[in-house]
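It is worth pausing here to work through a concrete case rather than discussing structure prediction in the abstract. The textbook approach is simple: state the sequence, then state the predicted structure, then interpret. We follow exactly that order.
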Amino acid sequence: MKIPLLPLLALTALLLAPAAPFCAPYPNGASQALNRLVTPNGDRKNDTFIFRCYNPRYSAVDGTIYDLAGRQVGTMRVKSANNPDSFDVLEWNPDSGGKKPGGVYVYRIRIEKTVYKGTVTIIR
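Step two, the predicted structure:
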């Protein structure tokens, strides 16, 4: 049985993502992707990819989006930072800077020396 390459690459990227030691438990949850399926159709439900990061030291946070070939296709913007609950919220709109086609993408979010990696899927 032949396994398609794209799902295999996405699974590999997800499995190789290290557990984040800076990701501290918190009553409202920990650092995480809030939605990994994005449907940018203008209905205001899951139109963007959201990542919430626990950041009690208010460190700089940046996020980048790549296609499965490793090319950078977008950057995440800080939607809110320095919140009283110590969470920063990053957002990526796959329609900004030109519509991205449906498919699997890899996100990389860096805070201090910690990197969070995973996949996000755009459904068109």
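Step three, interpretation. Residues 14-27 have pLDDT under 50 and may be disordered. Residues 5-122 form a domain with the Immunoglobulin-like fold (CATH 2.60.40.10).
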